Structures are given as C-alpha cells and as structure tokens.
C-alpha cells in the first residue's frame, strides 16, 4: 500500500509511522512521498533524515482548506508518485471535493479526541474545558465534514486532575503514535469494511 503523507507541523505521527515501517511492525506499507504546506515544517526535515521523498507545496490563500489550483497540484504530485492512500499527519487544511473524489475512502486522518466529541482545533483544550474524565485519539476516514468520517480505531487517555493542556496533549500524542500504525495495518491487510457510518473488521 503506497501512501502519501501530508503534514503542516513537526511530523511526530509521520515519524511513528515511518519507524513502524522501518522496524517491520507496520507491513505491506510503503511511504511513497511526504508533502508539506509549510516550507519549514519539521515533517520535511524528518523525511529527509530518513531518505523519504518529500516536497514543500504551497497551498492556496485560504489557510483552512486545500482547493482550487493548488488542490490540482497536490493531486498531480500524489498520483505521479503512485500514491494509493493519503494519510494526514497534522495537515491543517480541510480536504475538499477534488481529492475526496480521487481517493474515495482512501484518505485517513488522526484526531486528538474521541470523536465525535471535540472536533476541530485544540480538542485537548476542549476536553479540559468540558471537564471530561476520559479523552483520547481517533483514526478515521476523511469525508467532507470536520473530523466527521467513519471511525477506524480509537484509544483512550484519562484526564488527570492536575492536567494542563500541554500535559494532556503530550499523553494523547503518545497514544496517537501507537494507534496510527495499528490502524494503517488494518487498512493494509484489507481487514476493514465501511458499512454506512460504521467501520467493521472483516477478519
């Protein structure tokens, strides 16, 4: 399964995926390309250090979405690299109709909350503000909504009485780095099927 990874920031989830591939704990997956919409994004440096093809591609002026001419550029680059699945790793733009149509049910994201609770930005801060006792992270297929696609896998993280946004986020990220490779393995093995809004394991 050739994947293209899109990111905007430090790239810790990319690093977890790449390490799982290198260690053989994530099999049948090849990282074909890493793309970033920020020229100094840490994910690019991490990819270069591992010898994985990577590129900065500017996006359009709308900071919250990828569409128009730049969406076409991204699609051309991904398809040119033989990408079969698009994996979002801290990519801070909404995926729009062109990419969704080109990669139907083949775009995957990770979100730092137990969806459908706390979609959008700074979900760990939302969790603290709401006083929940448990939060976590979710790997899901991407659709046209905000963190609303069918859920592939989730992991829970307790919210401690003395948690700060930073401490809670750090513990969520620890679980993300475990969950994302595991979820990608389910996809690569062909062990899941989407039934309406539900994702079920088939074997």
Write the layout of secondary structure elements.
Elements: E1 2-7, H1 12-23, E2 30-36, H2 42-49, E3 54-56, E4 65-66, H3 68-80, E5 85-88, E6 94-95, H4 97-102, E7 107-111, H5 123-130, E8 134-141, E9 151-158, H6 165-188, E10 192-195, E11 198-201
Parallel strand pairs: 1-2, 1-5, 2-3, 4-6, 5-7
Antiparallel strand pairs: 7-8, 8-9, 10-11
Helix pairs in contact: 1-6
Describe this structure in words.
It is a single chain. The protein has 203 residues and is α/β, with parallel strands linked by helices. Helices cover 35% and strands 26% of the residues. The protein is built from 6 helices and 11 strands. Strands 3-2-1-5-7-8-9 form a 7-stranded mixed β-sheet. A two-stranded parallel sheet has the order 4-6. A hairpin with a 2-residue loop joins strand 10 and strand 11. The protein is globular and about 50 Å long. The mean pLDDT is 95.
- Note the main sheet: 7 strands, mixed
Total of DSSP H or I helical runs spanning 4+ residues:
6
For the record, the CATH architecture of the largest domain stands as 3-Layer(aba) Sandwich
State the share of residues found in helices, binned by percent: 25-40%
Termini gap: 19 Å
Low-confidence stretches: none
Category by helix and strand content:
alpha/beta
CATH fold label of the largest domain: Rossmann fold
- Average per-residue pLDDT, rounded, comes to 95
| CATH class bucket of the largest domain | Alpha Beta
Spatial strand arrangement across the major sheet:
3-2-1-5-7-8-9
- The tally of beta strands, per DSSP, is 11
Could you spell the SSE succession in H and E letters? EHEHEEHEEHEHEEHEE
Sheet-strand content, in percent, reads 25-35%
Shape: globular
- Whole-number radius of gyration? 16 Å
Count of structural domains: 2
| CATH homologous superfamily grouping of the largest domain | Formyl transferase, N-terminal domain
């Amino acid at each position: 399964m050739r994947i293209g990874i899109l990111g905007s920031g430090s790239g810790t989830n990319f690093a977890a995926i790449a390490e799982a591939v290198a260690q053989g704990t994530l099999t049948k997956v090849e990282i074909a390309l890493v793309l970033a919409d920020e020229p100094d994004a840490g994910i690019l440096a991490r990819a270069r250090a591992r010898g994985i093809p990577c590129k900065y591609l500017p996006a359009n002026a709308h900071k919250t979405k990828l569409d128009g001419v730049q969406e076409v550029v991204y699609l051309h680059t991904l398809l040119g690299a033989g990408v079969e699945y698009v994996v979002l790793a801290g990519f801070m733009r909404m995926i729009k109709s062109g990419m969704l149509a080109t990669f139907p049910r083949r775009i995957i994201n990770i979100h730092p909350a137990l969806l459908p609770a706390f979609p959008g930005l700074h979900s760990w801060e939302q969790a603290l503000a709401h006083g929940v006792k448990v939060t976590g992270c979710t790997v899901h297929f991407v659709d046209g909504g905000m963190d609303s696609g069918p859920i592939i896998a989730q992991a829970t993280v307790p919210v401690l009485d003395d948690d700060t946004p930073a401490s809670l986020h750090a513990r969520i990220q620890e679980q993300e780095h475990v969950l994302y490779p595991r979820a990608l393995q389910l996809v690569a093995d062909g062990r899941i099927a989407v039934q309406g809004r539900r994702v079920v394991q088939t074997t």
